[in-house]
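Reviewer 2 asked us to include a model.

Predict the structure of this chain.
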Amino acid sequence: MNGTHLPVEKVGIALFVVGIFIIFGVSCTSPTAPAPINRPLYLSIDGGSTGSAIWTLDADSFEIIDSLGNQFGTPKYIELSSNYLFAVFSKYRGDYTFAISLAQFSTAPLQLLNQVFPKGGELVINSSGDLLIMHGGSNLYIHDSSTLGLIYQDTTLDYIYTTVPSTKANQLVCAISYGRVMIYDLDEYAPVAMIPLVDSLRMPHTVPVDIALSPDEEQAYITVYNWTGGGGGFGSLIVLDLVTKTVLSEFTCGSFSQLGVSPDGKYVYVTDPAGGLYIMPPTNQLLRYSVAHDELEVFIDGSADIGLGYGNFITNEIVVGPNSETLFISSPGIEHKNEGIHIIKLSVSNKEVINTFALPKDERGYNTQMIRQIKLGGF
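Predicted model (structure tokens):
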């Protein structure tokens, strides 16, 4: 066999160096890949003309495990309990009106178990999984998750934009009109705290967009959009101390940003769907808030930063994996190599794209489907 041979003394030096690396645990390899997740990933889809509604993927391989057609309508919201998947559907019934339904499905396979026609719209589930909470306008509707029956209706509230359930108390943290946060007790059926986020005189047109809690629930993170200011308005990330009920920080972010909190509590990821969903100038960035340093940084600066070409980097829904090592990011359709990418699985440690998933095109060859929500099962 032909080849170049090292002198004996150089071979000895090389073996000595290798031994040092082994003894002291020094690694020459790239950062360790995130551990397998072994959970299902659920997508709710505005199916366009392709007839899709809800898909179940393997969160590691992105293999399609199960799917549900749009016979119930377009799924606006989905939620998971240990036993069921719940979905709010909107179905056109003619005369420019829509029927709203709340459906209960088994998860393996996706099979309808129950369906009712409620009054609310957005859907969340409480930490114990026994209550489904819907809201529409200034009304809150509380349903039993087993029967889907209406338990209580509160019509005395201010306009509710978005909500997140507490995992430490039977409460709901709601972002409401005039830039405020309301804490609603689900045992007493009443608000127990009202916290201003912004000066309503200085920013009277503030619209809450998304809300999330830190794992210890000492902080809330709220994105808002304000229609005043140059360029049609501006987006903000507000950090709220729930213990002292005071605003800690406010940062500029994209328009109508969605939030993903890492389970270890260290970071909050902030998307920017504006360019794809709201026809506003995109930042083409994914931001990350450091809880320890109280700083908002650019985590991904454009699609080229993660090797997906030089097009617009439009991000919408985001879910952080259970070990805080992986991000699942939905997009209205990043174009790369003439294909639309709708889900990106990303390693946090090195920003490496682990996997991508594209919804099928319609019969005309266009990307008319849009992912509304992504949910990771099992945690």
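The longest strand covers residues 84-94. The first helix runs from residue 8 to 23. We have added this to the supplementary material.
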